[in-house]
Amino acid sequence: MERGEILAGLRERIVAYAASRIARDVAEDLAQEVLLVLHQKYSHLERVEDLMPVSFQILRFKLVSHRRRAARRGEYTQAPVEEVALKDGRPTPEEEAARREGVERLARALEQLGERCRKLFRMKLEGRTFAEIQGLMEAGSINTVYTWDFRCRQQLLELLGGSWEGI
Amino acid sequence: MGGYMKRAEAEKLLGGYATGTLSEAERRLLYEAALGDQELFDALADEEALRELLAEPEARKRLLEALAEPKVGLWEGIAAWWRRPVAWGVAGSVAVAAMLVVMLLPVYQTMTRKPAVMEVAVRTAPAGRHAAEEQPREAEAGPVELAKKAEPSPVPAAPPAAVAVPVRTAPAGRHAAEGPEEEARAAARIEPPRPAAAAPAVEQVVAERAAEKREIAEAEAPAPKQIAKSGAVGGVIGGVVASQAEAMRVEADARALYYAGESKAAQRPAVMAMRARQAADVAAAAPGGVTGLRYSVLRRAASGEYEEVAPDTVFAAGDVVRLSVEANQGGVLRLLRQDDTVAELAIGARQRRVIPAGEGLKLEGPTVLAIEVAPAGARKDEKRQPWVRRAVEERAVYVVEPAGGPLRAEIALRVR
To answer: What is this structure's pTM?
Structure first.
C-alpha cells in the first residue's frame, strides 16, 4: 500500500472518529492537523504499521489539546487570562491524580478477572509476545491465545464501563 | 466475506496493541484491517488511552502487583493438596507399593544370594608406574601372549590422577596372603571373572569421579573477571558482562532490569526471584531509572515480509534487515551503520518501532550496527556504567544501562 493511499484512508477514518466525539467541522480541521504533523515530522514513514500508531498518538494529543483549548477559551468556564497558568509540559496535579485514579480503577478491574485472564494480562505486561504466551500457557494454537485475549479484553472493558477513556 | 474474516481475525489482536504484545506481522494485519473498517479503527484509537497508561513504568508496576498470584502458605498448600481426590489415590498407591516391597524383599534376597565377595578399594597408580610394573611380565610372556598384550586390554587404563575405585575381586586366594600393595596390584592385574559390562562401568566411575573433582576445583577457584567493553555487543547469546571497575557487583538479568520492579520476585522460582531482586536493587540505585532497550533483528523473506530471526543468525550477502526496537524510556533513538546515522526518531516509552522506516539495510558483508537511546532529559556527560545484557528464550536482546542516562548497543551481524 502506497503512502498516499494510506494517508487518504487515515484521513477518512480520523474524521469519522473525531466527528463522533466533537463537531464535524472541528473534526475535519483536526484530521488536517494530524496529517500536517505526519507530513512535516514523519515524512520518512511509509508503511501502515509505522504510520498508524503515530497517527493514533497525534490524534489523541490533538483531541486532548482541543478539549483544553475549548476550556481555556471559556466555552465551559470564564476566567481572567492573568490567572490561567502556563503549561510547563508536565502533568498538572489534577492530571496526575486522575492518572493515579485511572491506574487504581484498572487494577481493581484486573483483580476481578478470572485466573487465566489475569495470567494472560500479566504475561503481556511482562513483555511476552502471543507466540511466547502460547508456549508458556501450553495453548494448542496461537489462535486459542488470540481468542482468550479477546474475551479477556471484553470482560475488562465491561468491568470498566465499556471504555478506556475513564482510566 | 474475506473482509469480514480479516476483520474478525484482526479484532482478536486488539488486546495486544496497548501492551505492545503484537509481532510485526500481527501489527500489519491489525492496522490494515483498521484502515478499511471504521469500527475497528475507532476501537484501536480508543486503545491509545490504555497504551499511554501502560507506557508508564509506575502504572505497569502497580498493575503487575494487582495481577500477582496470591501467596499460599506451606500448610495451606499441603491441606489443599490433601483435599484433592487424586491425593488420596496417590497416597494409597504409595502405601500398597511400600507393603509389597517389605513383603517381597526377603524372598528376592534369598533368590539372588551369591557367594560372599570382598570389596577392595584399589588406589590406581599413575600410568607410568603401572606400565613399568607390567614390563617384567611382558618379558616373561611368550609371543602369543605378547600379541594378546598388544591388543587393547579389557582392564581400564589408569587415569592420570589417583582415584579410589572399588573393584570386586575373588575371595581370599594367593594374593590375599601377601601384603596390601601386592594385593592391590593383583586386583588391578588379574582379571577376575565378571560380566563383560563391568569394565566400561569402572571406566565410567573413574571418569565421573575425575569430572567431579574438576568441577569442584573449578567451583572453588576464583572466577576470572570478565572485562566489560566500552559498549554492549548485541547478538551474543548468554553471558553477563561484569564491571570493569567492579562498581557493579550484581550480575543482573538484563531482561529483569528492563522490566525492573514490574513483578513480584517472591512469586518466581528461586533463581528468577533472586535476579528480580538484584534488578530491583540496581534499578533503585539509578536516579533517573534504568535505561533499557529491547531489540530484535528482522530479515526480509522472499515474500517481502520481514520475519524476526535469532540474534546470532548468520546472514547471507544480500539479505535485507531491519530492527524492531523498543525502549523503556521515552527519548531519541538513533540507528547507526558503521558510525553513519541511518535513522533518528523520537520514541515513546515501550513503543515498539521498526527501523529504518523505509527500505531495510542490505548486508554486503559483516556489519556492525549501533542503536543509541538518549532518554529525555538525560545528560550526555554522565559517567557511563557497564552494560548488562542477556538473551533469553525469546529472539529479542535486552540491553540496559543500570545507571540510567544514554545507552548504546552495538549489534554485530555476521554475514557468510
So the answer is: 0.44
Residues A75 and A10 in one domain: yes
**B142 in Cβ contact with B97 (< 8 Å):** no
B391: helix, coil or strand? strand
Instruction: Specify whether A111 is located in the same domain as A155.
Output: yes
A76 and A97 in a single domain? The answer is: no
Give the range of the structural domain holding residue A115, as residue numbers without chain letter.
Answer: 93-159
The CA distance from B11 to B44, in Å, is: 9
Residue type at B280 in one-letter notation: A
**A7/A67 same-domain check:** yes
A 10 A CB-CB count for B21 gives: 27
Do the bridges between strand B314-315 and strand B367-375 make them parallel or antiparallel, or are there none, so unpaired?
Answer: unpaired
* CATH number (domain holding residue A148): 1.10.10
CB contact under 8 A, A60 and B66: no
Three-state DSSP class for residue B16: helix
Give pLDDT tens digits for B244-277: 333 343 344 667 777 765 544 444 455 556 656 6
Shortest alpha-carbon distance between residue B5 and chain A (Å): 13
CB-closest option in A57, A102, A110 to B67 = A110
Whether A118 sits inside 8 A of B67 (CB atoms) is yes
> According to DSSP H, which parts of B231-290 are helical?
254-258, 270-285
In a domain, A107, yes or no: yes
Q: What is the pLDDT of residues A40-81, one digit of tens each?
A: 999 999 999 899 999 999 999 998 888 877 776 655 555 555
- The number of distinct structural domains making up chain A is 2
Pick B19's closest partner by Cβ from A44, A56, A124.
A124
Instruction: Assess if residue A56 is contained within a domain.
Output: yes
Contact (Cβ atoms closer than 8 angstroms) between residue A17 and residue B42: yes
**Contact state of A103 with B258 under an 8 Å Cβ cutoff:** no
